[in-house]
Amino acid sequence: MYIRPFDPWKSQLCTCPFKYTLNVYTGCDHACVYCYITAYIPNAFRVRTKENLLLKLERELRRFDRRYIIALSYSSDPYPTIERELGITRKVLELFRRHDARCLLLTKSDIFERDVDILKKLRCAVGITVTTVDERKARLLEPNAPAPKARIRALRRAKEEGIPVYARIDPIIPFYTWEDFEETLDALGFVSHITVSTLKLRPDSKRRMFAKFPELMEKLWPLYERGERMEGYYYLPRELRMEILKKAEKKILERGITFGSCREGYRSYPSCDGSHLVP
User: Fold this and answer.
1) Considering only CA atoms, which of 52, 112, 103, 41 is closest in space to residue 76?
2) Residue 258 CB partners (closer than 8 Å, separation 6+)
3) What is the pLDDT of residue 257?
4) How does the average pLDDT of the chain come out, rounded?
């Protein structure tokens, strides 16, 4: 099965409504330093196609319960670099339209702008992740992802076409992206919903962060040592997390944008993931 119930490792902190997920590709070439998929996908930063995806997907969509949303994607970006050439995600969206499937799309790319003609005919919402609008920091954190300005410009175009849009500011990293939070928020002021999440480290992402940002981690890691270990992740201390989330929530709500948080044990309304925007 390619369409599967979304179940993020049976996390008790996950507050997502029931939905399905589809990863069009295996792996993601954005190669974000903090990425979690390296913990369970071999060669995670090498993108591979899936055998007979479109044929099998059409069969699954014939039996699919259209009341529920299909999310693209949580273990691979639906718009890796190779999508410009292959157009597999575009073909998937065409299948969604044919079968009237509801879709929640999330990406770190601007390639989705190419598919606005299809997206505006779907029952969908489109979101981007922007960790920071600081271009230098973004290149270091997400070396192969398109620039934040390009993602934001493409999302604004989607909104102009009448598509519901949302964003994730994720992960929030103390001493680094948290310093730019307000500027990042200002750049995303046109969206309807924003989800935030603090940096959560697994052993593999911890090693990459130390290798890439040794000075930052000298300040940051002692916080994690005082923090919590939950479901295989190192979390910041709860009091620090709650302080960051409360400040983020206040700034988001002040701009008339609804607020969500992801696997934090904190509140979200009207959804954590922006799924309430899907018609």
Assistant:
1) 41
2) 192, 193, 194, 252, 269, 270, 276
3) 98
4) 96
- What's the pLDDT band for 9 if we cut at 50, 70, 90? low
CB 188 within 8 A of CB 116: no
- Residue 271 to residue 68: CA distance in whole angstroms: 14
| Number of alpha carbons in the 13 Å side-chain half-sphere of residue 41 | 20
Residue-level pLDDT at 12: 79
CB 231 within 8 A of CB 9: yes
pTM: 0.96
Q: Are the C-beta atoms of residues 3 and 57 closer than 8 Å to each other?
A: yes
Side chain identity, residue 49: T
Q: Examine residue 171 and say whether the peptide bond preceding it is cis (omega within 30 degrees of 0).
A: yes
DSSP secondary structure of 130-199: -S-S-HHHHHHHSTTSPPHHHHHHHHHHHHHTT--EEEEEEEE-TTTTGGGHHHHHHHTTT-SEEEEEE-
